[in-house]
Amino acid sequence: MRAGSWKYSRGRVLAPVVVGVLIAASFVGGGAGPVSASGHSPGVTAHRDGGLAAAKRHPKFPRIGNATNLNREPVVHATKGKPPKKLELRDLVVGTGAVVKSTSTVSVFYVGANYKTGEYFTQGPWTTKKPKPTSFPLSGVITGFAEGLIGMKVGGRREIVIPPKLGYGKQGTGPIAPNETLVFVVDLKGVTG
Questions:
Q1: What global pTM score does this model have?
Q2: CATH class for the region spanning 3-192
């Protein structure tokens, strides 16, 4: 079975729900957390060294199809690697616009998937015929998602690997199992604040 076939049908049902879940579950992991001078929270590993080529050097990142084509939905593939214990970031495309801060409201396209299986639990607006970015304040989402966007520039695409303690933790939520490591691929379309 093609990896994307199951994801598409399930993602269409869950896409509107997950943004609400991201916002509603912002208390998990303790909120936005402290941010270092570099724009990232302590314990965050950021890789900005060449998108797909970086996957061979940094095996903690699942392979992403359509990784650098901002006109196509990214495809998260299953990985056999052991999930990381800390937040991992990789810029697949480095943007050139405004920079996200911890107090920003962002407009994004995104997909969210299970780290091990690559199965989507959300596809943001990609599933609509004429996708429009989804907007929300970083103060209203799970810690790993918020921290993963800090320092990103408009026009970029970032892969974010979120360990359970910065995601939905031991309780999980909806289609996200307890202690699940999450992968988001986010296209940053706009930022305010």
A1: 0.74
A2: alpha beta
